[in-house]
Amino acid sequence: MTITKKICLASCLAILSFYLSQTVNRTFDKGAPPMKYRHNLNGEPRNNQARFDRKRLTCANNTLVSIANLSRSYYVGDNLSISVIARDGWNRYKTVGEDFFIAKLYGTYPTNASTAGRVMDYGNGTYSIRFLLSWSGTLSLSVTLIHPSEAVQVLKRIHDTYAERRVMSCDFIDTEKSFSERTKCRHKHIKPYFRNTCNFSKPSVNGTWYCMQPKRASCDSISKCQRDEAATEKLQNAMLTPEERRLFTRSLLYREIPNSIKITVHGTGIKSETPDRSLSPCGPNLKETESEGYWYNGTWQSSRCFIRRLNLSKVYKCLENKSIFFQGDSTLGQWYFFLKSLVHGIDIPLKDKTSEGPIKAANYKKNITVHFRFHHLPINRPYPFEANRLHYVADEIDKIDGGKNIVIVLGLWAHFAAESIDIFRSRLYGIRHAIIRLHRRSPDTKVIWRTSNTREHSTIGHYLENSDWFAFKLLEVTKLILGDLKIAILDVWDMSVCQWHKHLCHPPKDVIKNHIDLLLSYIC
């Protein structure tokens, strides 16, 4: 081949390569503007990350939803598999995962019914959602994008890098000299943030709490603690760049993915208003199921175990001579107050009662007692509470002798969502060891754990502290650390995902009633 021909061929190849590159760009960019390389959403310079562009985020309106196991007919007991393909505002397919979805299947005829789907993230922008078809009728699909993956990346960053996402302070009061001093406190001791500290930690239960040492008062004079609103707002403002803050605007949160999917499910039997008596009795270490259950006409039907709907006389018979100890946050306090009312408990005055408990009620005729105590720090409250009178759950478990008439119900999550995950993990290990000690001295003591649920959010600060993504991570950690113990993990997450109410940290009374029905099924 002559030099002239070689030059001509090279020129032709170059022109063809240029033409193909332009064709490919037109095909896949679909009108997207040129990439402006600058910084990623974490503020770190990178060559492969575009500056903030809303249209490059996962877009609910453009995301594709379809039935993966399309069939001419579906029957009660079948599975429905949904495929989700995430796309951005330019209609381009996403190539990374971590979008945070929730999903439910629901029907309104012949009655309101709903169930939550199990979401599987394949890490490449595609997802599957699996449902167990549990009742007959016409069912519709709802898939909600809670956070696009870009927002989840920000939540992960602050979750992993910030020792705290709120600021707490405590008062130290010298009664002899009649003065008080307030200092900042936290769960992690990090120098040089705290050079001189008051250490209130308790290694035996994996509890940590450090305060800056007051200048004039002694560490022993600690009195009350509370959330520092102004300092918390300042801290949270510093956590996000202006670009990142835009990820938590209402127009990007809890966005419904449009779809017209409807299926008709045939069949009757156990998957209806009548509970399935063929299910195992509720208890510890139940096998995993394809679904936690479903709502049907305002009643939760478990797919994991048989729920007993007890009338009052049977409740009395079950709980007679029993003591139930509730220890955890205010969502568990809802259970205490509901059960106290159910058994017509009378409040018993306690000398050491504070705003965090303990509180106690009893039905003397049936010898039923119910107790509640709030867990130790962290406690997220803007008003003062007596920190020096708080008790660790692990310590309280160690004080209980146990026995067949003792039930311990635990629930810690809402106040831990804003803490580093290792704080929650270490506290759980402390509780785990206490449960093991309890079962060594009294193997027949029942222990039940209430999980986290979805909740409401009104500000960016709420998302930075209490996003449902954080709450779901706490649920996963709980099952990982406690799942092999002889305890019952009462999972209410799916109940909240598909409930016929707005998402609330403290569910409404009719939901709590169903929680208690499930709780009593584990106790009785």
Secondary structure topology:
Elements: H1 3-29, E1 37-39, E2 45-50, E3 64-67, E4 74-75, E5 79-85, E6 100-107, E7 113-116, E8 118-121, E9 126-132, E10 137-147, H2 149-161, E11 168-174, E12 179-186, E13 197-199, E14 210-212, E15 222-227, H3 229-239, H4 242-245, E16 255-256, E17 262-266, E18 293-296, E19 299-302, H5 312-319, E20 323-328, H6 330-342, E21 346-347, E22 359-363, E23 368-374, E24 385-386, H7 393-399, E25 406-411, H8 421-441, E26 446-450, H9 460-466, H10 468-482, E27 488-490, H11 493-497, H12 509-523
Parallel strand pairs: 4-17, 20-23, 20-25, 25-26, 26-27
Antiparallel strand pairs: 1-2, 3-5, 5-9, 6-7, 6-10, 7-18, 8-9, 10-16, 10-17, 11-12, 11-15, 12-14, 13-14, 15-24, 18-19, 21-22, 22-23
Helix pairs in contact: 6-12, 7-8, 8-10
Name some characteristics of this structure:
524 residues, alpha+beta, Immunoglobulin-like, Rossmann fold, eight-stranded mixed β-sheet, seven-stranded mixed β-sheet, 27 strands, 28% helix, 26% strand, flat
Give the structure's gist in a few sentences.
The chain is of the alpha+beta class. The protein is built from 12 helices and 27 strands.
